[in-house]
Design goal:
This protein is mainly alpha-helical and 120 residues long. It has one domain. The protein is built from 4 helices and no strands. The longest helix is centred in the first third of the chain and has 28 residues. It is elongated, with a radius of gyration of 15 Å.
Length: 120
């Protein structure tokens, strides 16, 4: 049950961060796409990473499993990346959409790597 939730949620993490990243990059180019909904969606996509890591830790603790090699690493790097992206928002105020656009795509890539390492 918990394993299924963890596996299915990983798709939400990857797809939501991809969409948030693409939306932010498009909003950099087209101002009509800049809305409060973009930031809510980006926050939801980034929050999904924290939920995924919590699900993974609960899965390992409940069933006394070992993490697949580098699988947990990518999850925790994802959490740290969200923090780094957030911390740069004031320094890159003029490039905020680029920061969150490329940041969302980077987080998507980390999710894909974690999925590949988890299935190996």
């Amino acid at each position: 049950m918990l394993l299924d939730v963890h596996q299915n949620w990983s798709w939400f993490v990857v797809i939501s961060n991809a969409l948030a990243g693409l939306w932010a990059l498009a909003a950099h180019k087209w101002t009509s796409l800049r809305s409060r909904a973009l930031w809510w969606f980006t926050g939801l996509a980034e929050l999904a990473i924290f939920v995924q890591v919590i699900l993974g830790v609960a899965l390992v603790n409940k069933y006394k499993l070992e993490f697949p090699a580098f699988h947990a690493f990518y999850g925790f790097v994802g959490i740290m990346s969200v923090a780094i992206i957030y911390s740069y928002r004031s320094q890159l105020k003029g490039k905020l959409y680029l920061l969150y656009g490329f940041g969302g795509l980077f987080l998507m890539g980390l999710g894909i790597r974690a999925m590949l390492k988890g299935s190996a």
